[in-house]
Write a structure and sequence with these properties.
Chromosomal Replication Initiator Protein Dnaa, Chain: A; 0% strand; 78% helix; mainly alpha; 7 helices
Length: 123
């Protein structure tokens, strides 16, 4: 899953035009759904879902907060969650970054989001 995810992130980044933060958030959701092989709707579902869906949502929330600079409250609104749930998601992702392949995927996603926001600033 992780190697596929890195390739997907690279290809998605090359194909996405200048974007605003809401579209970057959509980009994050779309890429995360593809990496974890789930439907984007699962990321926004009101229930926790499977462990895979929960982790995918946590990664997406983490990237929306850290990568896009949205507040915990704003991210919570986007995902239909409380800000404390978003804070917990960020803690979970940070904890999992000790796994080298997971950390590589997150690092690449963060760089991709940063590049998209830089492109937006130039537009």
């Amino acid at each position: 899953m992780m190697d596929h995810g890195v390739d997907l992130i690279r290809s998605e980044t090359r194909s996405v035009p200048d974007m605003s933060v809401p579209i970057v958030h959509g980009f994050i959701s779309r890429v995360i759904a593809s990496v974890y092989e789930i439907d984007v709707a699962h990321l926004l579902a009101p229930t926790r879902g499977t462990a895979t869906i929960a982790l995918a949502r946590q990664v997406a929330m983490y990237l929306a907060h850290v990568g896009c600079g949205l507040t915990l409250t704003e991210v919570g609104r986007q995902f239909g969650r409380d800000r404390t749930t978003v804070a917990h998601a960020c803690e979970v992702v940070e904890g999992r970054r000790e796994d080298e392949s997971f950390d590589q995927m997150i690092e690449l996603l963060e760089q991709s989001v940063a590049m998209l926001q830089l492109n937006e600033g130039e537009g």
